[in-house]
Design brief:
The chain is an alpha/beta fold. The chain has helices at about 15-20, 35, 40-45, 65-80, 90-100, 120-130, 145-155, 170-180, 190-200, 210-220, 225-230, 235-250, 255-265; strands at about 5, 20, 55-60, 80-85, 110-115, 135-140, 160-165, 185.
């Protein structure tokens, strides 16, 4: 079984599920290519590169030096890619990309980053990449498994999303998918896509009242029932009633799951990221 799903086009969750395919890597350099490469050692060093074809460039954006070095090491072990850009902040990354673009140098095909960036708006970074550097596929590697964050990342231009506990095999599949202009979702997050796809087929947004959608928007922003009641000028018991009805319509078990499902199927929420860590992970 493959470790992840890759998709050909479209970033809506239903489209992702409908259009997924099992990723098949292209053939590696064969023995017949040894004469062009020069020696078996050259072939091994060249990795997945074919004759006269430059290696795809990967950029890494992270404020932690050890994280950057760790990711670069994994990619180097995979072979077939060159990590020629490492930046510790968005301004540094965009300065490098701008200079390379101005000088006619090749841009990275993949930019690895986390959307939860200290003192920075990760969504704004994704939007900047998508608008000004469309050839660079943003690949989010993060500790956050919150489906709201994943949806926001894709909505703002991400082309790949996976958790930090990524295996070398998954990393190899992701890099090849992204350099081929496909989408990629890590194996542990596929369940979120399936649940969203099932929910979308029910078209629950049409069944939700305007007030139920208002309540779910505020739940997604992590407001308590009391805070929601104050914001909407209604009683706390009325908030609970709206949540109960919305959860039943969406098939959700918790208020947070109801908000996530509502967003995944079309309820527009404010673009705020959740900093909640992945369940079971320690805070950094």
């Amino acid at each position: 079984m493959p470790e992840a799903l890759t998709v050909m086009r479209g970033k809506d969750y239903a489209g992702i599920i409908r259009q997924y395919y099992y990723f098949q890597p292209e053939p590696r350099t064969s023995a017949s290519d040894i004469s062009t490469a020069g020696s078996l050692g050259d072939v091994r060093e060249a990795g997945w590169m074919t004759a006269n074809k430059p290696l795809p460039i990967v950029a890494i954006l992270d404020h932690r030096l050890l994280v950057r070095r760790g990711l670069a090491g994994v990619i180097d072990d995979i072979g077939g890619y060159q990590v020629s850009i490492q930046a510790n902040s968005p301004p540094e990354l965009f300065a490098i990309l701008n200079e390379r673009q101005r000088n006619g140098e090749p841009l990275p095909g993949v930019v690895i980053l986390d959307i939860l960036i200290p003192h920075e708006d990760g969504l704004a970074v994704l939007s900047h990449l998508a608008q000004d550097y469309p050839a660079c596929s943003p690949f989010v590697i993060t500790d956050s498994s919150d489906p709201v964050n994943m949806r926001l990342a894709f909505d703002h231009g991400a082309r790949g999303y996976t958790l930090r506990e990524v295996s070398p095999c998954t990393m190899a599949d992701a890099l090849e998918a992204l350099t081929d202009n496909h989408y990629f979702v890590g194996p542990l997050l596929v369940g979120h896509l399936i649940r969203a796809f099932v929910a979308e087929q029910r078209q629950p947004v049409e069944m939700l009242t305007e007030r139920e959608q208002d309540v779910l928007r505020l739940v997604a922003l992590r407001l308590s029932n009391q805070e929601i009641a104050h914001r909407l000028s209604i009683s706390e018991s009325t908030v609970k009633t709206h949540l109960h009805h919305a959860s039943e319509k969406l098939g959700a078990r918790t208020r947070r799951e109801a908000a996530s499902l509502a967003m995944q199927v079309g309820v527009v929420l404010e673009p705020h990221l959740s900093n909640s860590p992945r369940p079971g992970s320690s805070s950094r």
